[in-house]
Amino acid sequence: MKSSLKALQNVSKRYQQHLLSITKTGQLTVSEWSLLLAISDGINTQEKLAQTTTLDTSTLSRQLKRLLEKGVIHKQSVGKDKRQLIYSVADQGTDACQIISQNYDKFERKLFDQWSTEEQNLLKILLNRLENSLKNT
User: Cα separation of 107 and 91, whole Å?
Assistant: First the structure.
């Protein structure tokens, strides 16, 4: 039997592969999708996005630029000197999010189709406990 950490590593790799495939259906990367979800949740300035995503400024700027080029977000200059930017989700971004979310939901249903509610709840408890242990290590 594999160690818990080795099994977790294998699960993580497979999950990332599935996630990459799912986000491609909306013509986005996993990172772009995560950023788009944050913007759709009202986290709409570069400062707020940097805090939420823990991305450095240059990486965040590059990802925002790609989302703008793809037409999935808009930016608006505000403030006295128009240097503050507010980001919002464009219609194309909403469509991409819906496609990806639908495919993600299908994946999740298929993955846990044979699991009882009790088993799913136990997994959530154990994963939350593991996450907390990692934070404290």
Answer: 24
* Parent domain of 74: 12-93
Reply yes or no on whether the pLDDT at 97 is more than 90: yes
pTM for this model (two decimals): 0.85
Q: How far apart are alpha carbons 15 and 20 in whole angstroms?
A: 9
**Complete DSSP assignment for 81-127:** TS-EEEEEE-HHHHHHHHHHHHHHHHHHHHHTTTS-HHHHHHHHHHH
Instruction: Give just the sign of the alpha carbon dihedral 79, 83, 84, 87.
Output: positive
User: Within a domain: residue 109?
Assistant: no
Query: Is 131 a domain residue?
Result: no
* 15-55 tens-digit pLDDT: 999 999 999 999 999 999 999 999 999 999 999 999 999 99
Residues 6+ apart with CB under 8 A from 107: 18, 22
CATH code (residue 84): 1.10.10.10
